[in-house]
Amino acid sequence: MATRMFAAAKDEPSMRAIAGEAGVGIATLYRHFPTREALVDAVYQDQVTRLTTGAREMLAQFDPPTALRRWMDLFGEWIATKNGMLDTLLAMVEAGEIAHGDTRAELLGAIDSILEAGRATGELRTDVPASDISAALIGIFAVAGSREHEALAGRLLDLLMAGLHPN
Hints:
Structural class: mainly alpha
């Protein structure tokens, strides 16, 4: 529930609003998450895990290009989740409460696992590192990350995928 609220919010929702949306009392929310930072950390870590396991799951179900394209959509959802928790998240990164470098390594590893599978089958280019794809995704979602730009994001992701196919 908190994940959806953070994704839909333009500003950080209050803990009371999150508790209300979840159908629990504020005391119950605070019993599980004693601070806003604890809740943000739980949502953030859940989303990182969702991305890393999502790469493996998609590779098990789809050919590498399809798996990568679907993973890109999952990445976009992860970016959207940060909307309503950005101020807290940035403060936590600055305070060293979240290891941004570790998260980056996990996400690059997820991308690289799909790229390696695609390289092995000849379906994806061999000269594009995971870091380039990550940078492209951040750029795409920076300009087309909101719900009203969903169609544009889809077109840009498709364009990125077209560039990842070998010549």
